[in-house]
Structure formats: structure tokens, C-alpha cells
Amino acid sequence: GILVQLPLPPAINAAHILESVDPKKDVDAFHPENVGRIVQGQPRFFPCTPYGVIQLLQRNNVATAGAHAVVIGRSDIVGKPLANMLMQRGVDATVTVCHSRTRDLPAITRQADILIAAIGQPRFVKAEMVKRGAVVVDVGINRTDAGLVGDVDFHPVCEVAAMITPVPGGVGPLTRAMLLR
Question: For 33-91, how does the pLDDT look when each residue is reduced to its tens digit (9 = 90+)?
């Protein structure tokens, strides 16, 4: 298997590198062929971080069928593949993807049964953005003067969420475990 660690330095054309990897060895599913296979529900591999999130939900018996999942972030690494994976048969979530141009983001995030933050902004998701009883998955990892923090303002959000992942120690270790799997 081959894993391309993204992001690459600006001087390197990431698309060219990703397309040059044999799709049958692309264990993080970044090659366009593998992305298409995920969208069609015929995956060869799953991207490690999104797959870790799916496993986290399933192994913690979070009901995804019919649940409204809101993904904050539309990256090719997490947001887009995770949204596609959440929609697949067997997971069956109804998915909304939000990004930097989403209007009235808090109104949308407050509708989420499952809220996934993957935007790379420290403590961006505040308690008032979260529906009481929602499951909150924090994919972000940000270095601040206070140390490593996620995209979710953890302690205040704990007061309203039914479940929440910590940073560090939440999704990060799952990413590595899914790569090995």
C-alpha cells in the first residue's frame, strides 16, 4: 500500500502525485478512481479518517439511519468522502455539508443529530451551535498556546452533547488504526 501524506508543500502538484499512485495500492483512497468507487458504493479502500469516524459511530451504537448528519468542512481528505460514506446504504444518514460560505451556519448545525467538525479552526463550534443530545465528532487538531485543541469548544459543548470526541485522543488514533486495518 501507498499513503500520500497531505497536504504537500505548495511547490508540489498534489493532483499529479495522487493520480500517479496505482489505485490498487492507494490505501487512503485519494486517487480519482477510488473516490469514484466510494461515491458509487463500491469502495476498494476507505479514506482512513472518514472510515474511523464511521467506525466510531457504529461501534458506539449511534443510530445513523435517518439521522441528520452535518459535516462542517468540504475537504477532499475528510469532508467530502465522509459525507459520501454517511449517505451509503447501511449507514443511511441524511447529510448536509457546510463550509466557509454557508449562510447562518449555527441554524444548520443546531439541526444535526450527528455533528462532525473538520475545518481546522480552534474551538470554532460553540455550545449554542449544538442541538441538545447530539453526537459531536471533532476531527480537527489545532496547535494553540494552550496546547492541542479541536475544532469544537470541548467543555461547553460537553454540557449539551450526548457524546463527544476529545482532542487529542479521539479521531486521531482512529485514523492510524484504520490505516492499519
Answer: 999 999 999 999 999 999 999 999 999 999 999 999 999 999 999 999 999 999 999 99
Copy the grid coordinates of residue 83: 459525507
For CA atoms 9, 10, 16, 19, the dihedral sign is: positive
Closest CA to 170 of 133, 127, 137: 137
- Cell (9 digits) for 62: 449511534
Q: Is 103 helix (H, G, I), strand (E, B) or coil?
A: coil
Query: Measured between alpha carbons, how far is 83 from 38 in angstroms, rounded to an integer?
Result: 11
d(CA 149, CA 120): 10
Q: How far apart (Å, rounded) are the C-alpha atoms in residues 175 and 161?
A: 23
Helix (H) / strand (E) element for 164: namely strand 163-164
Residue 151 in grid coordinates: 475544532
Q: By C-alpha distance, which of 62, 39, 84, 57 is closest to 139?
A: 57
Q: Which helix (H) or strand (E) holds 79?
A: helix 79-87
- What residue ranges in 11-146 does DSSP mark as E strands? 68-72, 94-98, 114-117, 135-138, 142-144
Cis peptide before 173 (omega within 30 of 0): no
- The dihedrals phi and psi of 158, each to the nearest 5 degrees, come to -55, -30
pLDDT digits (tens, 9 = 90+) for 136-162: 999 999 999 989 999 999 999 999 999
